[in-house]
């Protein structure tokens, strides 16, 4: 996600041991913010910037998951409090640290958890970083002047982390704008750059990936065609709806509005069932940006397969101009009005 400035105010660091390992008594949680160190803050700011820039994937709360497992919403609740109140940093970060430990299993290595509060383009934000197996970064326990346990982060310049050696997962939450307090979020995983580890995204953050335009478009087309093939029995109506769907996908419009499509092209009785089918299939029901990159090959030709084994295929434009489909007493009547170009024996 594009941004101009990122500022960090305070950082809390926690040590998260391996579940079932020698230090399996639970996480070691700080009692206060870590000492300020410009070098360390610059390192964390760089990593958080990477989450929001080319490495980040948009995420959103998974309401179904949280409803089934309320503990999965602990991080979201803590983040929401922290965005609104900077004084919640230590308490909220301790809850986040405990949840990370609980969400992991024996396959997740020990590491440190960094929770930071700051601002992105003037709007409050919360950053979460999980660093694993880092020889170049260490968190040393100490006590501040008030006697509180804190971790001082030490970076070893001779082993400075690069994108090739750093293994971390991260997420950043921020307000959408000054007028809209809705939280938007991005997350990244350097081990899986185009996806996120299941435990980190779901069990820990309580979130799911937001579909990008190509994936949203693919899901919509899949669900819409499945609705036509399973719910629309009249062949003439099926052909009309299919033609409208392909025209929508091949048109120059940059946004798909499923509700508008249903109102404009489907019979009134099928309007709501169509939207319900999309929702049940996990496809978008609200307007979204169209990107046909993942379905381009499917949009070049339309194919009808009949019970007899006969197959009729052609471009959407040719089918619309030369093929007429109607219901008859004996089944479906298909009329092709065209000139025969070639003829060959079966193969």
Quick overview:
With 347 residues, the protein is an alpha+beta fold. It has helices at residues 38-52, 63-68, 74-84, 89-103, 198-204, 213-231, 235-250, 258-265, 268-280, 316-322; strands at 6-16, 57-61, 111-120, 123-132, 137-143, 149-155, 168-175, 183-189, 207-209, 255-256, 288-289, 302-305, 311-314, 323-328, 331-336.
Please describe what this structure looks like.
The structure is a single chain. This protein has 347 residues and is α+β, with helices and mostly antiparallel strands. It folds into two domains: 6-209, no CATH class; 213-336, no CATH class. It contains ten helices and 15 strands. The strands form five sheets. The protein has a seven-stranded antiparallel sheet, with helices on both faces. It has a two-stranded antiparallel sheet with strand order 5-6. A hairpin with a 2-residue loop joins strand 3 (111-120) and strand 4 (123-132). It is elongated, with a radius of gyration of 27 Å.
């Amino acid at each position: 996600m594009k941004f101009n400035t990122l500022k960090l105010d305070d950082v809390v660091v926690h040590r998260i041991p391996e579940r079932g390992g020698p230090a399996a008594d639970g996480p070691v949680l700080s009692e206060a913010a870590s000492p300020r160190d410009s070098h360390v803050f610059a390192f964390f700011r760089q990593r958080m910037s990477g989450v929001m820039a080319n490495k980040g994937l948009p995420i959103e709360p998974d309401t179904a998951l949280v409803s089934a497992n309320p503990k999965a919403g602990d991080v979201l609740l803590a983040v929401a409090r922290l965005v609104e109140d900077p004084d919640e940093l230590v308490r909220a970060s301790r809850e986040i640290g405990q949840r990370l430990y609980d969400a992991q299993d024996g396959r997740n290595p020990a590491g440190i958890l960094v929770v930071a509060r700051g601002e992105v383009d003037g709007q409050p934000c919360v950053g979460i970083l999980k660093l694993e197996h880092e020889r170049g970064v260490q968190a040393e326990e100490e006590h501040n002047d008030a006697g509180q346990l804190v971790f001082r982060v030490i970076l070893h310049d001779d082993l400075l982390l690069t994108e090739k050696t750093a293994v971390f997962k991260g997420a950043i939450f921020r307000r959408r704008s000054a007028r809209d307090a809705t939280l938007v979020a991005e997350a990244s995983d350097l081990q899986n750059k185009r996806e996120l580890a299941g435990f980190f995204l779901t069990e820990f953050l309580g979130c799911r990936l937001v579909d990008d335009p190509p994936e949203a478009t693919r899901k919509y087309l899949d669900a819409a065609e499945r609705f036509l093939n399973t719910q629309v029995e009249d062949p003439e109506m099926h052909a009309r709806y299919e033609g409208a769907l392909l025209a929508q996908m091949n048109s120059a419009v940059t946004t798909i509005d499923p509700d508008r499509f249903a109102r404009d092209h489907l019979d009134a009785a099928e309007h709501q069932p169509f939207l319900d089918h999309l929702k049940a299939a996990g496809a978008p029901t609200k307007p979204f940006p169209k990107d046909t990159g993942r379905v381009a090959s499917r949009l070049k030709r339309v194919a009808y397969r009949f019970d007899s084994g006969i197959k009729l295929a052609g471009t959407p434009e040719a089918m619309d101009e030369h093929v007429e489909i109607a219901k008859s007493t004996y089944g479906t009547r298909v009329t092709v009005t065209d000139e025969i170009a070639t003829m060959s024996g079966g193969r």
